[in-house]
Design brief:
Blueprint: H1 2-12, H2 26-159, H3 162-183
């Protein structure tokens, strides 16, 4: 107890109020000043600091919520875009496959059409050749027949009398008419 009373006694020995000075003893003044400042700060600043921290916490939580909502929206848009991309890629692949199939189909149709046209042209050519051959044969027959007839008529004119000559001409005209009907 002596230490406690000594400290009160020492309080009574303070210099008078008329003299003011700085206490340069750092070890004695700083812990007291610091404890007073900290006490005042804790007592009065506790509510302000608590409010500041709560506001900051709410802003951080709101920012996190907003970020999560934005992230979810971005993920949904990304999935929709991926789905649309897969659909477009599938359609493009279908167009390519269908295009190649259509090209092959058209090539086959063109080949078939060309083959049919060539076959028709060949048939037409053969028919034309046969027709022209037949016509040429008929013309040659007619000329041969006319020449033979003229030769026969010439011989008959020299050898026959008028009555026989008229009967032969009538018979030949009848035969010639019959042959003409057969050839037509």
């Amino acid at each position: 107890m002596k230490n406690v009373t000594d400290s009160f006694v020492s309080l009574g020995h303070w210099p008078s109020a008329g003299s003011f000075g700085f206490n340069t003893d750092i070890l004695a003044t700083n812990p007291i000043n610091l404890s007073v400042v900290l006490g005042v700060l804790i007592f009065f600043g506790k509510g302000v600091l608590s409010d500041l921290l709560d506001n900051r916490k709410q802003r951080i939580l709101n920012t996190i919520r907003n970020s999560e909502e934005l992230r979810r929206g971005a993920v949904e848009r990304l999935e929709k875009s991926r789905t649309r991309l897969r659909k477009v890629e599938k359609e493009a692949e279908d167009y390519i496959v269908n295009g190649y199939q259509e090209i092959e189909r058209e090539k086959l149709n063109l080949r078939n059409s060309i083959g049919q046209n060539l076959e028709r042209l060949e048939n037409y050519k053969n028919e034309t050749i046969q027709f022209e051959q037949q016509r040429a044969i008929n013309q040659v027959r007619q000329r041969v027949f006319q020449q033979a007839l003229q030769g026969a008529l010439g011989t008959l004119n020299n050898c026959l009398n008028n009555e026989l000559h008229l009967r032969t001409i009538s018979a030949n005209i009848g035969m010639f008419g019959a042959m003409k009907e057969i050839t037509d």
